[in-house]
Design goal:
It is a single chain. This protein is an alpha+beta fold and about 550 residues long. It is built from 16 helices and 31 strands. The chain has an 8-stranded antiparallel sheet with strand order 17-16-22-13-14-21-18-19. It has an 8-stranded antiparallel sheet with strand order 27-24-26-25-29-30-28-31. The protein is elongated and about 85 Å long. Bound molecules: guanosine-5'-diphosphate. The site of guanosine-5'-diphosphate has 16 residues, from helix 3. Pfam families: EF-G_D2 (PF22042), GTP_EFTU (PF00009), RF3_C (PF16658). One of its GO terms (cellular component) is cytosol. InterPro entries: EF-G-like_DII, EFG_III/V, G_TR_CS, P-loop_NTPase, PrfC, RF3_C, RF3_dom_3_sf, RF3_GTP-bd. Belongs to the TRAFAC class translation factor GTPase superfamily. Classic translation factor GTPase family. PrfC subfamily.
Length: about 550
């Protein structure tokens, strides 16, 4: 029996190795980098607070919001976020839990910020999907889920607010399976609903978890149980709930798939936990789940070759740029996901796009308590690199090798509008603000060759409002967005003489983006078709390669 067990263990190890090329060094293997996806109001902020509480990063839950408030006064552009109850900026936070280093990357919540969200999800290895037990799968959850699916991200599901009237457990699971086309396996099973909700049965570990209603920050009491027939259960669970629990779990075991780690890692199966974030209930079990099953840092797709996390040299890529986090310094912070190696402060890395060396002397690690200098970081971590605009989304940093990460999407601007400064004397300030947002990837900015002013291109209507709000708050400059005569933008590339000839013949339609690259603007698809026919040497693209 022992020989067989050892053999099974060995086989598993070999399979792990086969799928992961080589076992990771412990420092890297213990890292978990993930995001939370949810519909607004499902409980993402509350869950984040409890993570940090258990991660020892904050003393009392409630500080994320309190800190958020403080940050908002420092960085006013978040006024928008406050007014509309949406989260505009994404940040990353690190904390330790049970021997693991958790890196939680926050995703902006609103659908109009899908660009940012897509890019954020390129920096994580897994996602937690939070749903409201009474509402089930909501529109925004569905959209974000689809993004995760495109990357085959493993997903852990947390069904929140079980302390309130919620749907039947089977109904919730069914809805997820139906709407998201993913297998769902219960990691825990709720006992009672609403007022009668007393806790859950931890199916994966045969434990009874009882919710503490008196103290919202207290962890649930965990009682080891020898299966559902254990007489100990009756000591803690009222008879009618116990009977229901036994029936339902038995049914679940018959009807639903059992947990399969490989299916989870492949993104085809999600384990679901039932809890109540505000009561700290179910949070620890979810964290245990991430620690135990959550993927280690994964290889990064890049050209000309993939980057494996256990490579000894450092490689990382910028997935987000945020400016004015601290208005005192008009700096920007590039969020870098380390794809490989062991980074140490002061390292000189090569900025692959410009081929220039960069001394990374003041990298920031986003510890939940505050920004802190990162003395070291490993593959899987997110570090912030303050800079003056050299670092752009999609940029790669290496120890010299010319590698370029791939898979960071660029989006075709779908809505174009003219932007004007309320005060024409301040046109220069407007230009500066627009250039900054273009570099952050918050919008596309075009300067027409013949007309004055700027045209801004975005993916969602709300982005115009966010931009107007940020320009006013950060630059003290009221602006107006107005309809543009153009509806489509195409980057024009090809042999230089051909591009020049084309530009000269179409000046009224031409504009330069923030890099000075040529863009053709029109409102007619017919124009685009005609150019493609008449200028076979030119390439018209709706998106610009992130370079
Ligand atoms: P977010 O928009 O997803 O970040 O959601 P929040 O974390 O801000 O939560 C939205 C609302 O739901 C807040 O009023 C929370 O206090 C409340 N809430 C969060 N978790 C729970 C829970 O487990 N039970 C109940 N009853 N309310 C909760």
């Amino acid at each position: 029996v022992i020989a067989r067990a050892t053999r099974a263990g060995y086989m598993r190890l070999m399979l792990d190795r086969a799928s992961n090329s080589s076992p990771l060094p412990p420092e890297i293997a213990r890292r978990r980098t993930f995001a939370i996806i949810s519909h607004p109001d499902a409980g993402k902020t509350t869950l984040t607070e409890k993570f940090l509480l258990y991660g020892g990063a904050i003393q009392m839950a409630g500080q994320v919001r309190a800190k958020g408030e403080a940050r908002r006064t420092r960085s006013d552009f978040m006024q928008m976020e406050k007014d509309r109850g949406i989260s505009v900026s994404a940040s990353a936070m690190s904390f330790d839990f049970d021997g693991h280093r958790f890196n939680l990357v926050d995703t902006p919540g609103h659908s109009d910020f899908s660009e940012d969200t897509y890019r954020t999800l390129t920096a994580v290895d897994a996602a937690i999907m939070v749903i409201d037990g009474a509402k089930g799968v909501e529109s925004q959850t569905q959209k974000l889920f689809e993004v995760c699916r495109m990357r085959d991200l493993p997903i852990l599901t947390f069904c929140n607010k079980m302390d309130r009237e919620s749907r039947e457990t089977f109904e919730i699971i069914d809805e997820i399976q139906e709407n998201l086309a993913i297998d769902v396996t219960p990691a825990s099973w709720p006992i009672g609903v609403g007022r009668d909700f007393i806790g859950s049965y931890d199916i994966l570990n045969d434990r009874l978890e009882l919710m503490e209603r008196g103290d919202r920050n207290k962890r649930a009491e965990s009682i080891k149980i020898k299966g559902l027939d254990d007489p100990k259960l009756a000591e803690h669970v009222p008879a009618h709930l116990l009977e229901q629990l036994r029936e339902e779990v038995e049914m679940a075991r018959e009807l639903l798939p059992t947990f399969d780690r490989q299916a989870f890692l492949d993104g085809t199966m999600t384990p679901i936990w039932f809890g109540s974030a505000i009561n700290s209930f179910g949070v620890k079990d979810l964290m245990d789940g991430i620690a135990k099953f959550g993927p280690e840092p994964q290889p990064q797709s890049a050209s000309p070759r993939h980057v494996s996390p256990d490579e000894t040299t450092v490689a990382g890529f910028v997935f987000k740029v945020q400016a004015n986090m601290d208005p005192k310094h008009r700096d920007r912070v590039a969020f870098v996901r380390l794809a490989s190696g062991h980074f140490k402060r002061g390292m000189k890395l090569t900025h692959v796009r410009s081929k220039k060396p960069m001394a990374i002397s003041n990298p920031v690690l986003f510890l939940a308590s505050d920004r802190e200098l990162a003395e070291e970081a490993w593959a899987g971590d997110i570090i912030g690199i303050p800079n003056h605009g050299q670092l752009r989304i999609g940029d790669t940093l290496t120890e010299g090798e010319a590698i370029k990460v791939t898979g960071i999407p660029s989006f075709a601007p779908e809505l174009l509008q003219n932007v004007r400064a309320g005060d024409p004397m301040k046109a220069k300030h407007l230009e500066k603000a627009l250039m900054q947002f273009a570099e952050e990837g918050a919008a596309k900015v075009f300067k027409p060759m013949l007309a004055s002013g700027f045209i801004v291109g975005v993916v969602g209507q709300l982005q115009f409002e966010v931009l107007a709000s940020r320009i006013e708050l950060e630059y003290g400059l009221p602006v107006r967005f107005e309809p543009s005569q153009f509806t489509s933008a195409r980057w024009v590339t090809g042999p230089k003489d051909k591009v020049d000839a084309f530009v000269n013949a179409n000046k009224g339609h031409m504009a330069a983006d923030n890099d000075g690259d040529m863009v053709y603007l029109t409102r007619l698809q017919w124009d685009i078709d005609r150019i493609e026919r008449d200028y076979p040497d030119l390439k018209l693209s709706a998106t610009k390669e992130m370079m």
